Amino acid sequence: MNKKMTILFFAALFLWACYETEVSFKSLINGFADINFFISEMFPPDFSEVSKVFPDFITTLKMAFVSTFYGAFLAYPIAIFAANTVTKTKFLNVFFRFFLNLVRTIPDLLLAALCVALFGANPFAGIVALSFFSFGIISKLLYESLESVDENSFDPIRAVGGSWLSRIKYGIAPAVLPQFLSYCLYVFEINIRAAAIIGLVGAGGIGTWLNINFDLGQYNKISSLLLTLFLIIAIIDFISAKIRKRLMGS
User: Fold this and answer.
1) Which pLDDT tens digit goes with each residue over 223-241?
2) What's the pTM value of the predicted model, to 2 decimals?
């Protein structure tokens, strides 16, 4: 009975949410009817602009790499304070978890727009925005991994009088390092896509060209940029998957 009630509850919740958000399959079908226009405008792709804007693809990769590094650098100590298996002070756990929830609440596009207003329309603004974005994801994943670590594995370090920092250095770090590096690679992949998106608000990278071509209605150039970006992301995803597999298998 409980299982049936649970299914009915979520079914009712789903239908209520669809009604309140005005979900309409008729509108969806009517919208797809116009897709032929965009397909005809986007194909065949015009690759004449790709060589000219290729440096911006490299800038997008640089933004993703630097912001992932900064985000990971900040996430490691914060995750340690947020995890109650490592830091036994309840106030610190609650405070840093609240802080992480606050950081993750801010949408990346809004954060990018704010950074553009503060630092100007340049890649640095995008790096700052993506660093906060990376920090929020990596710290969340890492502190959850830290909480799954067996606390009994620290007993030998405690037995020889090891300090809190010693437990982190010799007990925590070796246990979570492969996962931590895997999270960094995962976020790096996400940041490549995110860097292209935040460029739409002037934060640098290839997104700036996507925005310009969209405003000009040059959809065939947009398709060429997207196909090039897809190829770059596919290559990086393949390499990252191999590295993650090796890390998690170590």
Assistant:
1) 888 888 888 888 888 887 7
2) 0.76
